[in-house]
Amino acid sequence: MKIGMNLLLWGTEINDSLFPVLEQIKSLGFDGVEVPIFNFNKPDWLIWQDKLDELGLERLAVAINGPDANPLSSSPEMRKHALENNMKAIDCAEIIGAKYLSGPIHSALGVFSGKPATKEEWQYGIHHIRTLADYAAEKDITLGVEYLNRFESYLFTCTDEMLRFVEEVNHPHCNIMFDTFHANIEEKNIENAIKSCANHLIHVQLSENDRGTLGKGHIDFESIIKTLVDINYQGMVSIEAFSMKLAAANIWRKTFDSEEQLMSDSLTYLKKFIH
Q1: What is the DSSP string of 129-182?
Q2: What domains appear along the chain, each with residue ranges and CATH number?
Q3: pTM of the prediction?
Q4: Fewest Cβ atoms closer than 10 Å to its Cβ: which of 9, 37, 48, 194?
Q5: pLDDT by residue (tens digit) across 115-136?
Q6: CA torsion sign, 201 to 207 to 208 to 210?
Q7: How many degrees, rounded to 5, is the angle at CA 194 between CA 185 and CA 232?
Q8: CA distance 213 to 118
Q9: How does 23-44 read in b/e, with b if 16+ C-beta sit within 10 Å?
Q10: By three-state DSSP, how is residue 219 classified?
Q11: How many angstroms separate the CA atoms of 30 and 259, rounded?
Q12: Cα–Cα dist 202/178, whole Å
């Protein structure tokens, strides 16, 4: 099982100033990185492809939708804009050589209606992801749909609902990404949730309950890794930790000493369970 690192630990400014960080990630012993695609200017990503190839790091792309690009909007123009944005993210993912584009790409982060998703909103989401999966297939990229907890999203907020959504999309280029932070809030049993989506699982984000160093909180990662082994999971697991540099995470206290400490300690901790 390979281990990656999510670059959102350093905030949302994803540019070549992070190349020394990529070198550090490689030197610590990581196998790959999750690259957030917020910049849709395709030429900017060509140097990323070269740098990642130089370091021999595998890469996955992650994306989100902001309030101005909501796939569930009643406005056809906004739904079209959201689809165009996510297609652009796929274009950039292709440039850096990512085979997966994951994240809560089915709806807009932090946007709520004050009530459960309607049948119409559900169908907007289905249509958005099915159309996006068609486009991703042309680029040999697979979508990894992710659910967020109830405080960040509302179309679906647990594994059972996400699984129903993906099975209704019913597309070979649409599967599931599982995030332990959200599961820690929403699932009765994380291990059972992982087992339930095993046939669709293409990527796993390991995130501590406080988004800090793995093994310093209360999530049972040893049991989670054992479950992944039991289901013969062959993908990458990546460490997703956030700091005050990511305003959207609303973390206003320090939960670790430094990015290097968090990476090193988390990696050492995981390698006790991953052989």
Answers
A1: HHHHHHHHHHTT-EEEE----TTT--S--SHHHHHHHHHHH--TTEEEEEEHHH
A2: 2-271 (3.20.20.150)
A3: 0.96
A4: 9
A5: 999 999 999 999 999 999 999 9
A6: negative
A7: 150
A8: 38
A9: ebbbeeebbbbbbbbeebeeee
A10: coil
A11: 14
A12: 8
Mutual orientation of helices 19-28 and 259-271 as an angle, nearest 10°?
30
The first and second tokens of residue 111, run together, are 């946007």
Distance separating alpha carbons of residues 137 and 116, to the nearest angstrom: 31
3-state secondary structure of 224: helix
CA-based nearest residue to 152, from 182, 121, 184, 189:
182
Count Cα atoms within 13 angstroms, Cβ side, for 160.
5
pLDDT of residue 257: 94
Token reading at 253? 């206290």
Averaged pLDDT for residues 76-100:
98
Quick one: pLDDT at residue 101?
98
Cα separation, 4 vs 204, in Å, equals 10
CB count within 10 Å of CB 111 equals: 18
Instruction: Note the Cα 79 to chain centre separation in Å.
Output: 21
* Closest to 210 measured CA to CA, from 235, 179, 241: 241
User: What Rg value do the Cα atoms of the chain yield, rounded?
Assistant: 18
Tens digits of per-residue pLDDT, 237-268?
A: 999 999 999 988 889 999 999 999 999 999 99
How far, in whole angstroms, is CA 210 from its chain's centroid?
17
SS3 content of the chain, % helix, strand, coil (to 5): 45, 15, 40
Mean pLDDT for 73-84 is 98
C-alpha span between 123 and 74 (Å, rounded)? 12
